Structures are given as structure tokens and as C-alpha cells.
Amino acid sequence: MTDRRKVYLHFKPSEKLDSKIEQLRTLGRKYGFELVSDAKEANIIASIGGDGSFLQAIRKTDFRDDCLYVGINDGHLGFYTDFSLEDMGRIEYAMQSNIVEVLRYPVLEVSVDGMKTFHCLNECSIRSNIIKTFALDVYVDDLYFETFRGDGMVISTPTGSTAYNKSLKGAVVDPRLKGMQLTEIASLNNNEYRTLGSPLLLSGDRQLLLKVIQDGNDHPIIGADNEALSIRHCHEIGIKLANKQIKTLKMKDNSFLHKVKRSFL
Ligand code: NAP
Ligand code: MN
């Protein structure tokens, strides 16, 4: 076990955090954890900050599937952050006991024009970058499904379902269901354009293909979680569940349903 206790901390340095980080370091030492300054050497990558920081920590360390990610919030608990700097007692408890659990979260694998590929933990979003609609042909597996015209579409993972997807009236999905959800952002629906108009929850073995109709407005913004990709022009976006998952550490008394209840009810 000793060789699996190398911890990398991902955070934006600030004076406010300094003393907290020192407390964490002291606590870690007590239980045999060692802080490393290179994320590649770590077995545990801890993000300090909100869910947004957690998404960044995973992106910056390349969606590793051979380490554990831990989210530590600086205030309230979030969807990915099961610990809080305000509650060192809980962190210490987790370091020494078996009340923690490893959860595996599905991530999306997105490829643009069959070349660039990247991953998303929350969602992939495709949006018009001007005040004009754009159009996409949507294929599920090899079946032409619909032609979408509107502001954009969001393809979310189960854990991402409580974020952007939820604002679009998508369903909140239990992360034990390994699938992906397609939601629309302001689709036009009239005698010319017709889309499903409701969220589409797809099995994890499906593949989505979005073909950008080249009609002038064919430079949509492609977002991967909280980052925009620097892709100027694209024709085809392929989306499926990746064959790897992100492992996160969570407390046994803080299930997905606890989090949904705490955040929304
Ligand atoms: P942000 O715009 O600064 O904040 C978005 C809010 O969503 C934050 O409060 C964030 O938590 C929370 N959040 C992130 N992932 C979540 C999840 N899986 N379940 C529940 N809440 C979640 O952006 P950000 O913090 O960098 O997060 C990026 C995410 O924002 C994107 O992945 C997308 O899902 C979401 N987003 C939502 C909308 C919308 O609802 N209209 C539009 C664009 C993007 P923290 O405060 O703890 O970071
Ligand atoms: Mn073109």
C-alpha cells in the first residue's frame, strides 16, 4: 500500500489556501501519504475547489484511469467533491478507515473529423457561435435520426446529467446506468424542421454522429466540460462512451441520491 500513497494536489495557489494545504500535508504524513509535485507520479490526484476545478484537474492530467481522483471543496460539498477543507475531521476519517468507496464514472470519447479525440466527464456541447441557428444531421449508430436546427446540442454523461443537461430539462441519471443523454438547446420545430424535442437517453454501446451542415454557419463552438476546444471548422463529431472510466473516492454515506437531494430538494 505504501507505494500507492503518492498524492498530487491540484489547486489555484492563494494565501487563503496556504494554511489549509499545510494542514492537509501534516494530516497526510500522519497516515503515510506523500505529496508529489508531478501529477504523473501520483496514485491519488486531489482537486481543491469546486466541481469546476475537479473537471479541470481531470482534464489537465489527461483523464487517467490508473489513479484515484478525489474532490475537496473549499466550501460546501459538490457533485464531484466529497470532502471539504472546512471538515478536516472527515478527511482524516477517510484516510484511516474503510468507509470510503471507489466509484467508476463513465466518460465520453469525442472525435472531431475522425482525427482529434478528447474526453468529457460532464458533457460535450456543440453551440452556434453567432446569433444565428446552425444545423446538424444526427445519426445514432448508422441510422440517420433527425436534422436539428437551433442553438446547439448537449451530450452528457450520467454524472454530467445534474449540470448543463439539467438546465435543458434533461433527466437526472443514476451514474450506475452507463449511458449518455442527448438534449437540445432551443431547437426550431416547424413544418420544415422536426426533431424529437425530448431528451434521448442512449445505451452505453451506441455511437452518435453529428454532421454539421455546411451552409455558412458551420463553425460551431465545441465544448468539453468547462473548456472550449480550439477547433475552427468541423464537419463531423463522433461521440461514444470511452472504454475507460474515471475512478473517484467517495464516502459511503454520500451516494448520488444524497447529493441530488442535498443540491436540489
Ligand atoms: P460555471 O458556469 O462556473 O458553473 C456551473 C455550476 O455547475 C457550478 O456551480 C458547478 O459547481 C456546477 N457543476 C459542475 N459540474 C456539475 C455536475 N456534474 N453536477 C452538478 N453541478 C455541477 O462552470 P464550471 O464550474 O466550470 O462547470 C462547468 C460546467 O458548467 C459544464 O460542464 C456544464 O455542465 C455547466 N454549464 C451549465 C450551463 C447551464 O446550466 N446553463 C451552461 C454552461 C455550462 P462548482 O460551483 O462546485 O464548480
Ligand atoms: Mn466545411
Query: What is the rounded Rg?
Result: 20 Å
Domain module count: 2
Count of helical stretches: 5
Mean pLDDT: 94
Using the alpha-carbon principal axes, give the shape.
elongated
- Helix fraction, binned, reads 10-25%
Protein architecture, described:
The protein is an alpha/beta fold and 265 residues long. It folds into two domains: 3-97, Rossmann fold, CATH 3.40.50; 107-244, Tumour Suppressor Smad4. It is 18% helix and 39% strand. It has helices at residues 15-30, 51-60, 88-96, 164-167, 256-264, and strands spanning 6-10, 34-35, 44-48, 68-73, 83-84, 100-112, 116-120, 123-127, 134-140, 143-156, 179-187, 200-203, 208-212, 221-224, 227-228, 236-251. It has a 16-stranded mixed beta sheet that branches. The two termini are 40 Å apart. Bound molecules: NADP nicotinamide-adenine-dinucleotide phosphate (NAP) and manganese (II) ion. Manganese (II) ion binds next to loops.
Brief descriptors of the model:
265 residues; alpha/beta; Rossmann fold; 16-stranded mixed β-sheet; 18% helix; 39% strand; binds NADP nicotinamide-adenine-dinucleotide phosphate
Topology record:
Blueprint: E1 6-10, H1 15-30, E2 34-35, E3 44-48, H2 51-60, E4 68-73, E5 83-84, H3 88-96, E6 100-112, E7 116-120, E8 123-127, E9 134-140, E10 143-156, H4 164-167, E11 179-187, E12 200-203, E13 208-212, E14 221-224, E15 227-228, E16 236-251, H5 256-264
Condensed summary:
It is built from five helices and 16 strands.
